[in-house]
Amino acid sequence: GYGRFGIKYDEDASSTDLTTRMRLQIDATAESDAGVVFGARARINADGNGVTNGAGADFNGVRYFARSGGFEVGVGNIFGALESMPGQYPIDLGLTGLGYDYTAFSGADAYTSTGDGAPNGVEVLYSAGDLSVHVSASDMNDRIAGYVAYTWSGWTFAVGGQDSDDATDNDWTATAGGSFGIADVTLAYADNGGTDRVVLAGRFDVGAATDIEVYVADQDGSDTGYGIDFNHDLGGGTSLRGGVAKRFDGNTQADMGVRFNF
Amino acid sequence: GYGRFGIKYDEDASSTDLTTRMRLQIDATAESDAGVVFGARARINADGNGVTNGAGADFNGVRYFARSGGFEVGVGNIFGALESMPGQYPIDLGLTGLGYDYTAFSGADAYTSTGDGAPNGVEVLYSAGDLSVHVSASDMNDRIAGYVAYTWSGWTFAVGGQDSDDATDNDWTATAGGSFGIADVTLAYADNGGTDRVVLAGRFDVGAATDIEVYVADQDGSDTGYGIDFNHDLGGGTSLRGGVAKRFDGNTQADMGVRFNF
Amino acid sequence: GYGRFGIKYDEDASSTDLTTRMRLQIDATAESDAGVVFGARARINADGNGVTNGAGADFNGVRYFARSGGFEVGVGNIFGALESMPGQYPIDLGLTGLGYDYTAFSGADAYTSTGDGAPNGVEVLYSAGDLSVHVSASDMNDRIAGYVAYTWSGWTFAVGGQDSDDATDNDWTATAGGSFGIADVTLAYADNGGTDRVVLAGRFDVGAATDIEVYVADQDGSDTGYGIDFNHDLGGGTSLRGGVAKRFDGNTQADMGVRFNF
């Protein structure tokens, strides 16, 4: 798991407040003689905000799975196909993510650290060499979603789609990501219920222990969003992080603090 | 602890749904120089049903105890004498227990994984060689219950009784269980507030890694209940399990899935 | 963590009931290459009373901190300066504390095992050799509090003060404590919103594994309070403890039981 704490600025709320998180992950597994791994994953998560920075922790929903070779079946608080698709989280902006406007898709099932997850979630994952496939479904809006990703000469291309009862859910999305040597770059597109979003994001190493991440995102009917952050490795699983983002709604948010893995 | 997931069929509800569980046990103990072990047991338990399969976990009530040699005192979320009596859980049907109609007694204090347990529960356990005695009491219906069990030539005989303010609580119960070589067999009787229940249950090994469990149960004013299951050891603490039971109320339930210990 | 269970008598309630506690502490830390330790502390706490002795556990609020050498910054569920001040908890009476009338201050921020702690709590701790300083602040009554403590020839002197919006909160407090050879003695004074409290407390070793603690406390407008206890080490982190106290309100409380560390 990890912990983090720092400060977060929000322009619209005219506030600069503490932000904190503690997250412990429980991965309980057993392996059959034939090599099938059965397991359960749950988290103990505490998120502090500007008022109750020491907010107490709670258990989230459990994901159960069986895995053998490149094949995995999951039920419960599933990962979700679109959430797991390469290129949807090309960077990890600042200390807190700062709104995640750089994630192209919206409206799909996803593993949650603070709730039970989608009702009746089930998913199948398959990977073989450079190919990976993920299909997930739940009773939330009768969603069924999937992606196919292929890595070729260091570049990963992924296409995903979803059928849902909710018109605002994601319909389809595509990403391409790879390295130019000095930078890792990802281009992503999503049709979220008729609203297009395009994201260009990159990570640059600047020095041995520091990188900088940037993104520009465009969405139908919204301001162009953009953001930049830095991550400085302090060693021993600790890092100093901070960033600033102009959100789609025009609001500016910024944060800075420390993250420590344990 | 252990985890399990699979599917469960219920005839009356006309449903076939996912069923899941994750259970972690916390046993925290310390031993004095004189050899007395003091301890606390609590569980982190998550039970998923047909809708929220990834339901989040909760802590249950804590059982505190002091143990020395064959003598143990417990308080809090107590085990309960009748719940702990040999022969009351002769088999472990299917993946989920399928209603536990094969447990003879009903209406008594028992360790619960999903609540706090009986108010003001206290109990004393004693064992010496082939003899075991267990007395428990609580403010729930002013219950006081106890059993005595003796093992003789591989057969275990137990008799238990209870005094309670609730007319539907168990009054007394007796069990006998042992092995015929090819099968472990248990016969149990209980007078649950004037309603008699008789259970005959057995376990048969069929092959090196598989056993089959069966029961027939009869209760005043109910249909005869019966059930059968299989348990197939997959190694490494994992097993495939499934069963079907005709409940006392005439409902048929069935389940199948995997259980993994960790 | 530790567990404890025993019985507690309360004169006013005319009751003698079970009392239980289980407390697990989670200290998750990481250390940077430069030697700064970042961490989070949370507790899993279950307190049983006279009815539900096996009451289930909960997470408390999280304290986050960064520590380097003798310098530490904490946020969230902070320790609190007055709560941490030497001499405020000169003894640990009986099994349960028996009301803590021997703690001089009242009305200040403190680490809580059963809640989230003060809103927006922040604190700074510094120690160097015989000197220690602690300043804490929160949005609870806009409290800001601090203490300075110095140890000289085996005696520790501490002075603390607080500014608060609540007239009943502590204003200032001072303590002195040290050893007379046969006894550890602490004298403490506090002005709690105009109500003076003076406490004299001591600990005496009686035999290799047993000590006795006593206190006398005087408070404006209240009866004189006093109490006595014993602690007998059973080895292996286990101990037998018991005490009796006459509270400020004239009520008599007593307890006895076992505590075990794990």
Summarize the structure.
The structure is a homotrimer of 262-residue chains. Chain A is mostly beta strands. Chain A is 2% helix and 59% strand.
Plain-language structure description:
The structure is a homotrimer of 262-residue chains. By secondary structure, chain A is mainly β. The first copy, chain A, has one domain (2-21, 68-261): Porin, CATH 2.40.160. Chain A has one helix spanning 81-84, and strands spanning 2-10, 15-31, 37-48, 58-59, 63-68, 71-76, 122-128, 131-137, 144-152, 155-163, 170-179, 183-192, 195-205, 210-219, 225-235, 238-246, 252-261. Chain A has a 16-stranded antiparallel β-barrel with strand order 1-2-3-5-6-7-8-9-10-11-12-13-14-15-16-17. The longest helix of chain A has 4 residues, at 81-84. Chain A is globular. The N and C termini of chain A lie close together (6 Å). The model of chain A has no long low-confidence stretch (mean pLDDT 96). Chains in contact: A-B, A-C, B-C. At the A-B interface, strand 2, strand 3, strand 4 and strand 5 of A face strand 2, strand 3 and strand 17 of B.
CATH homologous superfamily assignment of chain A: Porin
Order of helices and strands of chain A: EEEEEEHEEEEEEEEEEE
Strand order of the largest sheet of chain A: 1-2-3-5-6-7-8-9-10-11-12-13-14-15-16-17
Q: Using the CA coordinates, give the radius of gyration of chain A.
A: 19 Å
- The average pLDDT score of chain A comes to 96
Oligomer description: homotrimer
List the helices and strands and how they pair.
3 copies of one chain form a homotrimer.
Chain A lengths: L1 E9 L4 E17 L5 E12 L9 E2 L3 E6 L2 E6 L4 H4 L37 E7 L2 E7 L6 E9 L2 E9 L6 E10 L3 E10 L2 E11 L4 E10 L5 E11 L2 E9 L5 E10 L1
Antiparallel strand pairs in A: 1-2, 1-17, 2-3, 3-4, 3-5, 5-6, 6-7, 7-8, 8-9, 9-10, 10-11, 11-12, 12-13, 13-14, 14-15, 15-16, 16-17
